[in-house]
Design a protein that fits this description.
By secondary structure, the chain is α+β, with helices and mostly antiparallel strands. The chain is about 40% helix and about 15% strand. It is built from 19 helices and 24 strands.
């Protein structure tokens, strides 16, 4: 084995911890939803194995092997023989290869050639729709990648008049969006326009053809053209440049690739299982905090977490879970101690009611119909002494939303026109905001008048439930996708923000959202919704503690993100060593 091969094999066997630790978060769809993760390092490892395979770096060469040039002569002779017997169609001669086209140097005994000279190519052709069905009549029919792969392990369609065929042991190549995915056919079938069948000749291993296509996939993708459907033509596939080793080495490569891919499967399974087990453990331990029935049980649950903190909160998702639990504990009265000297929430609500009555008398807000009291069955958990559950209409001076008329707006104007896209966790972002004229603004603002410190709540669409404090001093207009919640001066608006962000309130508002094209929370539902209200002094203590703990979580998350970026860079760097 050459020094290069020793080096590259060591990259695989001696750096498995790096491959398995390089994990990328793939995002989330909303507050409270789970992040998914890509096993980035293992994906890079698979690509490295295939890259090594097609470069001649995966297994040692044997000078006694018959060269690839001799193999290609035999394949050409076999094609001529099959053409004469009418089993294959004659293809046009492919252009010779220039030295400038060759992307890297090959080992002794290998050859560069066009894919069309190495295999027999059959491009798919979809029959008229009247000839295929879902009733199981005829030959299995695969139109494209969506039909042939893990998503549909059995055929969705059958064809009674097939036009183009793929046979057992052919490599099926997706030639239309997405270009490049492959699969080895395990049945005789009819293939549509989205697929091409690559048929091995003589004793060429199908798996080596599959390795070639996977190893050179990015190059093949680069030849795709088209706007609606990116695709590669028969000419492109036939003329695609590939590296060909001696036949015996092809078989050694296939055996080694299979061995290493099994190792990757095992690593992937182990890592995936570990991620899922870790996630479940964190969830169960945090749930024990929120479900604790008394102080002693709560302390025991927290002790278990504290003793294992460094092992539990090692991912962004686990810290997200911790931060959500902090918010939940805050509104359950479990985050800070109660002080019996604090004025109870019931007295605070009397003051809010008096404030609202004064505003109604002054004509600043409208009188609302009283809502029914909250029944014991509605209350999701017990609250400490001095707390109470109260509907939002009791705690807020005003609940409304922006305009429902979508007025004329543009890239310039006198007043910002804010919609859901501008509402972020840390305030209103005007970077991509549009503008409206003063006349339009005055009409909207007469009903919906956001001021600094008011609560803005997204109530329409996929991001429903995102809530923030208005951080802008200047007045602006809003679209109806955002609700305006004006808190009483007697209520700490930052505590209100915590309550509206808590898992209890988020899940309650997201459940049963109305609408078809766009789901939404109605103003009526917001008015009926209720939150736990602690004494005013305790609200301030809760806000201080939540701010402190969330900030520490963000710091920890930043450190983890930085660590993952380094691991990803190392995985990338290890892969590039062979290039």
């Amino acid at each position: 084995m050459s020094a290069d091969q020793n080096q590259t094999n060591q990259l695989i066997t001696e750096n498995l911890d790096i491959w398995t630790s390089a994990i990328k978060a793939k995002g989330r769809t909303g507050r409270g939803s789970n992040k998914t993760y890509e096993l980035y390092g293992i994906k890079k490892l698979r690509n490295l194995i295939l890259d090594m395979a097609v470069r001649g770096l995966l297994v040692p060469q044997d000078p006694n092997d018959e060269s690839a040039s001799e193999l290609l002569k035999k394949i050409a002779a076999e094609k001529e023989h099959l053409i004469k017997k009418g089993k294959l169609k004659k293809q046009k001669a492919l252009s010779p290869i220039n030295e400038e086209e060759k992307p890297f140097e090959l080992p002794e005994g290998w050859e560069w050639d066009k894919l069309g000279n190495f295999i027999y190519l059959e491009m798919g052709q979809s029959p008229p729709s009247k000839y295929y069905n879902q009733d199981g009549e005829g030959m299995p029919f695969f139109q494209g990648k969506a039909d042939f792969g893990e998503k549909y392990p059995t055929p969705r369609y059958w064809c009674i008049k097939p036009q183009k065929y793929s046979y057992i042991n052919d490599v099926l190549l997706s030639v239309r969006a997405p270009v490049g995915p492959t699969n080895i056919s395990n049945i005789n079938c009819c293939i549509g326009r989205g697929l091409a069948a690559l048929r091995p000749l003589l004793d060429v291993p199908t798996m080596y053809i599959d390795c070639l296509l996977k190893g050179f996939r990015s190059q093949l993708e680069s030849f795709a053209t088209g706007t609606t459907f990116a695709a590669v033509s028969k000419v492109v596939v036939e003329n695609f440049l590939i590296s060909i080793p001696p036949l015996k080495e092809q078989k050694r490569i296939v055996a080694k690739v299979e061995e290493l891919m099994i190792l990757c499967d095992q690593l992937e399974q182990k890592t995936d299982t570990s991620i899922k087990a870790h996630k479940l453990l964190v969830e169960n331990l945090l749930n024990a905090l929120t479900q604790a029935k008394d102080h002693k049980t709560f302390q025991q649950a927290w002790q278990r977490i504290a003793e294992n903190f460094g092992n539990l909160f090692t991912t962004e998702h686990s810290i997200d879970q911790l931060q959500q639990t902090i918010l939940q504990l805050a509104v359950m009265g479990k985050l800070v101690p109660q002080d019996p000297k604090d004025e109870p929430a019931s007295e605070l609500l009397k003051k809010i009611a008096a404030e609202k009555a004064k505003l109604i008398k002054e004509g600043k807000i409208k009188k609302q119909k009283p809502l029914p009291p909250i029944s014991d069955e509605e209350k999701p958990f017990e609250l400490p002494e001095g707390w109470g559950f109260y509907r939002l209409d009791k705690t807020l001076n005003k609940i409304t939303d922006g305009t429902h008329h979508s007025p004329k707006n543009g890239s310039s104007g006198e007043y910002y026109y804010i919609s859901a896209k501008n509402i972020k966790d840390d305030g209103v972002k005007t970077t991509n905001a549009t503008f409206v004229t003063k006349e339009i603004h005055d009409d909207i603002y007469s009903r919906c008048n956001p001021e600094r410190g008011d609560i803005l709540y997204i109530k329409d669409g996929a991001t429903t439930g995102i809530v923030t404090l208005n951080n802008l001093d200047e007045p602006f207009s809003m679209l109806s996708s955002v609700a305006l919640l004006k808190p009483s001066k007697k209520l700490n608006n930052k505590y209100l923000l915590i309550a509206l962000r808590s898992p209890f309130f988020y899940s309650e508002m997201r459940s049963g959202m109305s609408g078809v094209a766009i789901t939404r929370v109605t103003l009526k539902k917001l008015n009926f919704a209720f939150i736990p209200i602690p004494p005013f002094n305790e609200q301030k203590r809760i806000v201080t503690k939540v701010d402190e703990l969330i900030a520490l979580g963000d710091q920890l998350k930043s450190q983890i993100t930085h660590s993952k970026k380094i691991q990803t860079k190392i995985a990338d760097a290890l892969t590039k060593i062979t290039n």
